[in-house]
Amino acid sequence: MSADAIGVQSASAVDFVTRDTVPIPADATAARLGLGRVGGSLPTRAVLDFALDHARARDAVHAPLDFDSVRQACVGLELEQMVVESACGDRQIYLRRPDLGRRLSGASRMTLSKLEADDSDVVIVVADGLSSKAVQQGASALLAPLVARLRSMRLSLGPLVFARQARVAIADEIGTLCKARLSIILVGERPGLSAADSLGAYITLGPRSDRTDANRNCVSNIRDGGLSYEAAAFKLAWLVGQAFRSGASGVQLKDDSDSAFMSIGQPIKTQSAPVE
C-alpha cells in the first residue's frame, strides 16, 4: 500500500480514533505516550511508527560498523591508532556470548602485549557494541572535544584503540596491556524504540580484569537529541579529573559535573533517556 493510500485511509478513519486526553508537550519526551486507541487496538499511525522504529533498532544491532571511515575521521586527533578484535568470531557469536565480547582474541592480546608503549594516564577505546549507527555518527564528534579537554588537563594519552565485536569490559584488558591508569570506552548502546543511535561512555580507574560494573562511571544517551557531544565531553573530563583526585571511580565517585557545567553558563542540552 502506498504512503498516499495510507494517508487517505487514516483521514477517513480519524473519527474512530480515541485521542489520549493527557496533555504532553511534543518536545517533552520521545517516549511512546498518549498514542490513543481504536477500539481495543492502537491507531494505524502508532502501529506503523512502532514497526519503523523496531526496524531501525534491528539495523543498528546487525549493520557492521565501518571502522575505516571512523578511523579516518579521527586522524586529526593525532593519536596512534590500533585495531583489535574481541574473542567473538562473528556477530552471531557476539550476540549469543556476551562473555567473549569482553575479552580480546589471542592475536589481539599478543599484539598489545608486544606494544612498547610508555605508561599513560588515559587510553581511549572505541567499540561497536550494540549500535554501529551510534558509533558511526557520534564517535569522532565526541572524541574531538574530549581529547582537547584531556590534553588541556595535561594528561598523557595512549593509543586510540578500535575494538570489533566488543563490550564494555574489554577496556579493562586493553587498559592493562596499554599500561594506562584509566580507561574510557565509547560504545554503541543497546537501541531502544525511541533512539537507535545512542552512544555510551564508561570510565574505569585502574583498569584490570577483576573490575566490575560497580567500578565504572557511565555517561549515557550521547547523541543528537540527547546529551550533546560538548556536554558529554565536559562531563567525562570532569569525571576523569575527579577519579584521579579521589583515587576512585564507579559507585565511590559521585557525579556532580552538572552543577560545574551550569556554573560556567553552559546549560546541558539533554532529553530523557530512551525508553525501550
Please, could you describe this protein's structure?
- It contains ten helices and six strands, in the order αααβαααβαβαβββαα.
- It is of the alpha/beta class and 276 residues long.
- Helix 3 (67-73) runs parallel beside helix 7 (132-152) and helix 7 crosses helix 9.
- Strands 1-3-2-4-5-6 form a six-stranded mixed β-sheet, sandwiched between helices.
- The chain is 39% helix and 16% strand.
- It is globular and about 70 Å long.
How are the elements arranged and paired?
Elements (H helix, E strand, L loop, with lengths): L2 H11 L30 H19 L4 H7 L7 E5 L5 H6 L1 H4 L4 H8 L6 E8 L4 H21 L4 E8 L5 H8 L2 E9 L10 E7 L10 E7 L6 H18 L10 H7 L13
Parallel strand pairs: 1-3, 2-3, 2-4
Antiparallel strand pairs: 4-5, 5-6
Helix pairs in contact: 3-7, 7-9
Distance between the termini: 29 Å
Low-pLDDT sequence parts: 1-8, 267-276
- As a whole number of angstroms, the C-alpha radius of gyration is 21 Å
Number of strands: 6
Elements, N to C (H/E)? HHHEHHHEHEHEEEHH
Q: How helix-rich are the residues, as a percent range? A: 25-40%
Count helical runs: 10
Strand content: 15-25%
Major sheet attributes: 6 strands, mixed
Order of the strands making up the biggest sheet = 1-3-2-4-5-6
Structural class: alpha/beta
Q: Averaged pLDDT, please?
A: 88
Overall 3D geometry? globular
